[in-house]
Specification:
Blueprint lengths: L1 H16 L1 H10 L7 H12 L2 H11 L14 H8 L1 H18 L4 H24 L5 H9 L3 H8 L3 H12 L3 H8 L4 H12 L3 H8 L6 H15 L7 H14 L3 H21 L3 H4 L51 E4 L2 E4 L3 H17 L4 H17 L2 E7 L5 E8 L6 H4 L1 E3 L7 H8 L3 E3 L13 H7 L4 E8 L2 E9 L9 H21 L3
Length: 515
């Protein structure tokens, strides 16, 4: 009976009540196992959501994730510099905070989310202190230790009201949960973790696997600190846990107190940096204010080597770039049903620098190059929609591979169009002539016959830029971009920038091919 009830709740939460979190999990949960392939996939999954893009970049530039204030203006750079696991951590944390906004029991959810962040920071800092591998995995596992509770209170309704009433008379939460729901909410956490494929470490901590695993102990101890400290930093429970933490970390009582207090203050600061000041107030603040321990600064290691020093090796295939100029975050303009990027020279420059450093690092692949180029065109040149269509093996048809700005998530995958150079077709013409093209509102008599009904049905018609993408002398696809959503006019400067990105893409891809 209990399993059936849990099944009902899992289905309801995944399909109906937590769509934002479910969508984010589907995008990022399985992308950290490989390096280059997963880096590009993770970048795409973030760029497809403009709101998530801006939030990730804001957090990537915060003191916690970027203690040396090295400006990160592009998603590609965030993924390369911080690493896929850290960016995944940021995405899940953002999504978790957003659940509070749509929850039915906001105060209850806010308390749970604050506790989750507190536990995650405590656990991650323990892992870093012990120099354990995968501190980001520890953070995620601790953050989601009570995802079942959070999910339940987000959409509990009448069941939540009954559970709250039962908790007033029960000796413990588990007792009330069994009485009202017929199961413990920690079992819902385990099922959601399995459904969303959240974390093997989280499942291990619940199923008591690897009882001696220090990563599991970090997760459990981090949560214990977060929960007990809510009763006060001088309560008997936290005193006992501090003793256990000191033994685990091999620290004196004074050093342990200082370390855990600092982590609590850091947790509150991190939550506030996510734009959730109200939630941050639920993290119990220690009374004493002590200076920060130098070895508690969080350092992140890139998964792809970034070479940016003056003495770094430069690729002679790429045009030298000027020193990066800092500028405010890109301004967005509203166009129809979505926000569209406005031209931003700084993002263009950052994307080109990312491309150069990626190629010279020797860790680049085709997918990551295309990710950087399309982000530069979309957010830098300021185009409403951009798509890379891959030339199929028969070289007669183009199929959508990557795209940004398209309202329908399934549009890119369904994008298919003829590329036969022997027929009257703009893409066949483009691949044959190997030059970028600007199709205006009123095309001339040479271009007009090439604008087929097939193209109009796919894009809605209107002016656009397009250019071939090639490795050495072999065309592999086409990049198309327009401003059909915002209605902004295409101009000469935008076309030149668009064409320049195409040139750099071709140079980079040829360099990867050994040309």
């Amino acid at each position: 009976m209990a399993e059936k009830e849990i099944d009902i709740w899992v289905t309801r939460l995944v399909q109906e009540n937590m769509p934002i979190f479910t969508r984010t999990v589907e995008r990022v949960a399985g992308m950290a196992s490989k390096e280059n392939g997963s880096l590009s996939e993770l970048a795409w999954s973030i760029l497809e959501d403009p709101t998530l893009t801006s939030q990730v970049l804001k957090l990537a530039n915060s003191m916690y994730y970027n203690p040396y204030s090295q400006r990160i203006n592009t998603v590609s750079r965030a993924v390369m510099r911080l690493g896929s696991n850290t960016v995944k951590e940021i995405c899940l944390a953002i999504s978790l905070i957003e659940t509070v906004l749509s929850s039915l029991h906001k105060e209850k959810v806010a308390l749970e989310v604050a506790r989750a962040f507190h536990a995650a920071v405590q656990a991650k800092r323990m892992a870093i202190r012990l120099n354990l591998p995968g501190p980001e995995e520890v953070f995620i596992a601790a953050l989601l230790t009570r995802i079942g509770n959070i999910a339940f209170w987000c959409s509990a309704g009448e069941a939540g009201d009954r559970l709250e009433s039962a908790m007033l008379d029960a000796e413990c939460e588990d007792q009330a949960e069994m009485k009202v729901l017929g199961f413990k909410l920690e079992r819902l956490t385990l099922r959601l973790s399995q459904e969303w494929k959240l974390s093997d470490l989280l499942e291990c901590s619940f199923q008591n696997k690897n009882g001696t695993d220090p990563l599991v102990h970090c997760v459990k101890l981090g949560y214990a600190v977060a929960q007990a400290s809510e009763k006060g930093w001088d309560c008997p429970q936290i005193t006992a846990i501090m003793k256990e933490a000191g033994d685990f970390l091999n620290l004196s009582e004074k050093e342990t107190t200082k370390t855990l207090h600092e982590a609590a203050r850091a947790a509150a600061d991190i939550i506030e940096s996510y734009g959730a000041k109200t939630i941050s107030r639920h993290v119990p603040h220690p009374v004493e204010v002590s200076p920060q321990l130098p070895d508690q600064i969080v350092e992140t290691k890139p998964t792809a080597k970034i070479i940016e020093s003056n003495g770094a090796q430069k690729s002679d295939l790429l045009i030298p770039l000027p020193v990066e100029i800092l500028s405010p975050s890109p301004v967005e303009i509203t166009g129809g049903r979505q926000k569209c990027p406005k031209p931003d020279p700084n993002i263009q420059l950052c994307s080109l620098r990312d491309l150069s450093t990626l190629v010279t690092s020797g860790r680049a692949d085709v997918n990551m190059v295309l990710s950087i180029v399309l982000e530069g065109i979309y957010r830098g040149v300021g185009m409403d929609r951009v798509i890379f269509a891959l030339l199929m093996p028969d070289r007669q048809q183009l199929k959508g591979k990557y795209g940004l700005g398209w309202i329908d998530d399934g549009y890119v995958e369904s994008f298919r169009i003829s590329a036969n150079s022997e027929m009257l077709n703009i893409f066949g013409f483009l691949l044959k002539n190997r030059r970028p093209i600007w199709v205006p509102e009123k095309p001339d008599n040479i271009i007009k016959p090439l604008l087929t009904e097939e193209l109009s049905n796919l894009t809605g018609g209107g002016p656009f830029f397009a250019m071939p993408v090639a490795v050495k002398t072999v065309a592999i696809g086409v990049i198309y971009a327009d401003r059909s959503q915002s209605g902004l006019e295409l101009d000469e400067e935008s076309f030149e920038n668009f064409a320049f990105f195409g040139q750099q893409a071709n140079m980079s891809l040829s360099a990867l091919g050994g040309g």
